[in-house]
Amino acid sequence: MTTFDAREWVYFSSGNANILLKYVGNSDPNLTKKLLRLKRVGNKNCDERIKSDLLKDYFLHSKCIELSSKFLLDLNHKLIKTNPELAVPASTNGEILLISIFARNHGILMPNLLNEVNNTVHLGNHLKVHYGDSELVLEMKPKWLYNLKTRNCRNCCLSKYRGKQIINCPLDLLCENKIPNWSKRIVQKLRDSEHSINYINSLELILTEFFMKNKIIGYLFMLQNRYYDSSRESYNRRILNLKSADEVPIELIESQTLRDVTLFLNIHSLSRNNYDIVKDTVDKPKTLISINNDSFFEVDCKLIDLDLKTSLKFEYWKETELKLIESGLYTSDKYGLVGCNRIVDII
């Protein structure tokens, strides 16, 4: 069992399923630049993770560790004081819980991919850019990569239904001719934000070259659709007929999990000498980019959020799809929906 001191961990970020804590102590150098991920109360996702030979090189190295109840209780009390907005109604023996300490006395220790950045620009739904003095990190969710049969894709329809801003459609990344404009819109939005961002003048070409060269989007497209034909209609036939969690096949659970992974692109510059040294030995998740044989960059791609979804989410999936169908957004030419990409040629 690992014994940590709650005073050496602070809140970093959170989602619906997990809370991330950042190590700020100095008692253990091995924890420097590390995050601890703990499940939130109500998180019913499985402890099992997606397994894939295609994606294994992109997985973020992490370690499951057993934690003491004292550490988790101390941490819970600390977070209630420092981050009361995280509090949930759930309680055990009168204790308000932020993390599921009595269900799971373990957490995931993982590298902090944002350790070298200290600013964040929120570009839109599931799309952020983090930057610091020497690094830039693009964070995105390449959700619902599929062969489009309707006018508008599920990603854009759901964003519009929820009143979220649409900056880019992930389906553009499936077509080589669409990728440059996808990258251009990212850079334009960053310029409009008036943030002083390193690499801004090269970023459009960096992103375009990365998505042209690296196979990650193609891999995700194949894996999201490997059990069904790659259309939303195929998904509908299965999800809308489900009556109970027991009917949810593991194939659907895996597909839904892969539709919700988070992708991080860590971008940093290289000297000409370093570029020449590593250009013939770089591994799969990393992509080297040369711009006009003058500027050199390395892009390291990592995936997180790989815990298998619970079959209990089938009602939410079903309800969401029914709402989108009834809204008419899939076929609408209104509300700023301009039609999404139907071409898949990056495989």
UniProtKB/TrEMBL annotation:
The EXKPK motif is conserved in inositol-pentakisphosphate 2-kinases of both family 1 and 2. It comes from Pachysolen tannophilus NRRL Y-2460. One of its GO terms (cellular component) is nucleus. Gene3D superfamilies: Inositol-pentakisphosphate 2-kinase, N-lobe (3.30.200.110). This is Inositol-pentakisphosphate 2-kinase. The keyword Ligase does not apply. GO terms for biological process: inositol phosphate biosynthetic process. GO terms for molecular function: ATP binding; inositol-1,3,4,5,6-pentakisphosphate 2-kinase activity. Belongs to the IPK1 type 1 family. InterPro entries: Ins_P5_2-kin, IP5_2-K_N_lobe. Keywords: ATP-binding, Kinase, Nucleotide-binding, Transferase. It catalyses: 1D-myo-inositol 1,3,4,5,6-pentakisphosphate + ATP = 1D-myo-inositol hexakisphosphate + ADP + H(+).
